[in-house]
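Colleagues,

For the teaching module next term, I've prepared a clean inverse folding example: a structure given as tokens, and then the sequence designed for it. I'd like students to try predicting residues themselves before seeing the answer, so please don't circulate the second half yet.
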């Protein structure tokens, strides 16, 4: 990927891609082409058709399209698919929950699904394996989960058919919704990808949850980015969140208010988790800590952003294991939804929690820790922060999560980065089979 030319996918094309598979589309054009024998068509018509096919083919060739349907192990709704879904949803001894986990092939999703499965809970994953960052990493995470007995359905949140099929196959007690178009800077290049997944997909999933009897409890990932341009620190859940600095943040804020309506009207039990810069093994290649590590190892300069008055950026970096505990505990403490068939029978739970580390670290210090673990100096290039939506600092007040979830982050940045670097060096080592999977990738 890494092509900076990628723009929004027009809705018609999205529809096309969401068709069960691209096969249909292709065979259709083939049919048209076959019938268009010269005898029955004017030269002009043939020329038009040719041009149309050329442009269409060109479009598909140029665009790095999401991979819906390309790696399907099992066709949705086949008997084998249903069997795999049911098996993955089965609880083992000690297991209490049956969870639909969206974004399962993602960074946070893969970790949480393994933790739940390990406790004996039933887990079914859903992910569309899109190419926002190198998809090989998503495949590798899913392969690891498969070994642990977790089946990841390959499908899009917006595909009502797949979603409905999942819910008619399994009775989910909980939905942990982590699938999203993430990343702040990419929103400048492809805003509609955010609307598609974070707004359209979000509502599709809530609709399904609201219509299901019994309704599952719904826990989902919001983001610290909803605090936007707030300057009061630390960020507390009751602070205003109505001046986002990026379109990504705006879609996460939209999720919080959309979720509120489903809670209010239909009695869905809702928990929003505002994650603060999550990092760790199997992390996201589009995030700064990841590309810093890559560039330091490869001897390339790293860009460190600076504010208008030369202030340093600071982030409340949160280690993945702490986030996993916060997610699992949110599921455990979620009370059941109260609605049925379009009506609520009583007030349902509505919660919002910060999940951070409460120790903001300036990026410079962060790079120094990386240098220490990598035993190599970084080439630092200090540049002014681009105006694409990053905020100067984040700092979580986690009192609420401490009280309600027993959330208590244990891992400082020094220790967490050590784990990350160790994973990175092993995973991408020469001869690992993964060493080329980041080739040519440039985060936005
Ligand atoms: N990692 C962080 O620092 C951080 C911070 C704040 C919030 N979050 C939120 O946490 C959640 C998980 O983040 P992550 O870091 O694991 O990101 P990730 O990109 O690794 O995981 C998200 C997964 O969702 C999938 N997905 C995206 N759109 C989809 C769609 N329409 N249908 C089906 N699957 C789709 C992607 O393929 C990906 O595997 C996201 O909602 C993200 O916005 C993350
Ligand atoms: C942190 O949050 C708690 C609970 O919401 C609140 O009572 C407290 O005042 C906040 N602390 C600060 C320093 O903002």
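(Answer key — instructors only)
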């Amino acid at each position: 990927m890494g092509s900076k030319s990628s723009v929004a996918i027009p809705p018609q094309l999205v529809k096309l891609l969401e068709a069960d598979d691209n096969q249909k589309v292709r065979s259709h054009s083939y049919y048209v082409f076959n019938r268009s024998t010269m005898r029955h068509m004017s030269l002009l018509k043939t020329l038009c058709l040719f041009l149309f096919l050329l442009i269409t083919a060109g479009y598909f060739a140029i665009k790095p399209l999401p991979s819906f349907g390309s790696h399907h192990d099992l066709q949705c709704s086949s008997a084998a698919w249903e069997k795999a879904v049911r098996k993955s949803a089965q609880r083992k001894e000690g297991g209490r929950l049956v969870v639909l986990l969206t974004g399962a092939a993602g960074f946070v999703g893969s970790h949480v699904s393994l933790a739940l499965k390990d406790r004996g809970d039933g887990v079914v994953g859903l992910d569309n394996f899109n190419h926002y960052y190198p998809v090989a990493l998503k495949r590798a995470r899913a392969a690891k989960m498969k070994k642990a007995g977790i089946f990841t359905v390959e499908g899009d949140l917006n595909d009502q058919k797949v979603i409905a099929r999942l819910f008619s196959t399994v009775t989910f007690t909980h939905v942990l919704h982590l699938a999203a178009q993430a990343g702040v800077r990419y929103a400048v290049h492809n805003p509609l990808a955010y609307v598609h997944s974070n707004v359209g997909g979000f509502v599709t999933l809530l609709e399904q949850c609201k219509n299901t009897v019994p309704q599952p409890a719904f826990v989902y990932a919001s983001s610290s980015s909803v605090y936007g341009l707030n300057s009061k620190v630390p960020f507390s859940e009751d602070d205003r969140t109505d001046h986002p600095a990026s379109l990504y943040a705006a879609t996460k804020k939209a999720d919080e208010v959309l979720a509120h309506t489903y809670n209010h009207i239909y009695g869905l039990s809702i928990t929003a988790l505002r994650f603060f810069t999550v990092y760790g093994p199997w992390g996201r290649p589009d995030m700064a800590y990841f590309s810093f590590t890559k560039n330091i190892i490869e001897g390339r300069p790293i860009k460190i952003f600076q504010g208008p008055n030369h202030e340093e950026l600071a982030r409340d970096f949160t280690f993945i294991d702490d986030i996993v505990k916060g997610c699992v505990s949110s599921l455990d403490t979620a009370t059941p939804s109260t609605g049925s068939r379009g009506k609520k029978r009583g007030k349902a739970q509505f919660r919002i929690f910060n999940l951070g580390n409460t120790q903001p670290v300036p990026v410079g210090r962060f790079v120094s820790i990386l240098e220490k673990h990598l035993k190599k100096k970084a080439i630092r290039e200090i540049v002014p922060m681009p105006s694409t939506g990053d905020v100067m600092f984040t700092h979580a007040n986690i009192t609420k999560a401490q009280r309600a979830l027993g959330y208590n982050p244990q891992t400082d940045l020094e220790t967490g980065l050590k784990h990350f670097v160790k994973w990175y060096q092993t995973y991408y080592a020469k001869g690992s089979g993964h060493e080329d999977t980041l080739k040519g990738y440039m985060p936005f």
